[in-house]
Structure formats: structure tokens, C-alpha cells
Amino acid sequence: MLQELIDRTAIVDAAIAYATALDTRDWQALGGLFAEDACWEYSGSEDRIFGGEAIVARISTSLARFDATHHLNGNHVVTVHGDEAEHTCYYQAQHVRLGLPDGEKFLGGGRYDDRLRRTPDGWRFIHRRITSVWSEGNPAVVTS
Question: Quick check: pTM over 0.85?
């Protein structure tokens, strides 16, 4: 029971570290959260990226256009199966681009669905799927 609590906490910490790495643009920390054979995808699109380096390249390129982002996670659910685990949580992600005429902010909410693997260096994402559920604000913030 104690090991399960330790694992659950470490997995939630990985999800929080992901959000922090995005917002601080700490690409090295972000890359360290993924296994080498990881897959990252955004549901509803053809966007499936494989491998930690490619995932970081895709995310860093996407976030480069923003003046700021702010990702919040909640409602974590973790199920541990030995050295593998499943995790889901909700997110809200604020995106800011200053100077846009129809508004500088775009807020999105959705869910992360994850699979993780225990490694000698800790829990690492082997699959992260992002599902958008709702949004509000100026879509040009994220599309142009």
C-alpha cells in the first residue's frame, strides 16, 4: 500500500512537472519526462509524435508564438499496474499573445490520458493524449 501511494504521488508529480516545463519553457526538463519510445498526440488531429526529442521539438515550436502560457491540472486519477500506470487529469491552459486586435487570450480546457512506465530514473510518459473539451477567447491567439 505504501509503495502504491509513493507511485501515485510520483505520477501526479510528473503531470505537474509537464505543465511547469511548458510554462517555464524548460525543454530539457520536458524531455526528461518522456521515455525514448513515447508517443504524444492531440486527439481530433493527425498530430502523433514519436520519441522524446521529437515531442519536445513539436511542443517548443508550438509554444514559441506565445508571450505566456499557464497550464493548470486537476482531478488526477492514477491506476498503478506494477511497473506501468494509467493517469488521467483535467487541464485548463491559458495562452497569451499580446497585441492581437480581437483579444490577447485563449483559454482551453480538456483532459490528458496517459500511460507511464517505471524506469530507473522514475516514472516516464510512454503515451500522452490531449483531448480538448472546451475553449473561449480569441482563436487567433492559437491559430495565427
Answer: yes
